[in-house]
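hiii, so i know i said id send this last week but things got crazy w the move. better late than never?? heres the sequnce for the chain we talked about at the cafe, plus the structure i predicted for it. fair warning i was half asleep when i ran it
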Amino acid sequence: MGLQLGRLRHPEPRHRQLGRHRRAGTLGHRIDDAGQPHRGRPAARTGAHGAPAEQLRPDLARAGTASQSSTDGAADAAYATDGDTSTDTRTLSEPGAWWQVDLGEARRVGQVEVWNNTAMTTADFDVQLARAADFADATTLHVTGRSLRPTLLDTDAEARYIRIKLTGTGPVALAHVLVHPART
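okay and structure toks below
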């Protein structure tokens, strides 16, 4: 009587259990196992380990005009809206220092995303959303303590101007500020 060795069978990888998808032509179109175009919605790019890809939300601040109360060295106000979190904008240390963006027209804002600089300088500030340049009609959201990377502030306000203003004395130093429209 001989000894028979069985063949170890590994379970199918998760992506194969869910169906085989091959790219065809343009990125995002799926082909089924029979080689026919998939009739469902286009495939989303996947992140690490096959997780769904994050859907990026529009950033209204990116097309806006940034300004600030003062500038420390070459740390221009526009660095906070350039899409690069390795560049910082900085004001001088002063009472009520501020950074702001003009969106060009009033928009319905759903969230403001504030990325502090790597030294976590910006602390105890108000985020003001206003239709008028004098901020007389501003909706104000207060952040106590240091801003994180990121600090997410949910709102539902009509605004053209978004200002980050210290409530005390110090510099405003930001790596990135994003303004997301309200979901419809």
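btw Helices lie at 14-17. thought thatd interest u
miss u guys!!
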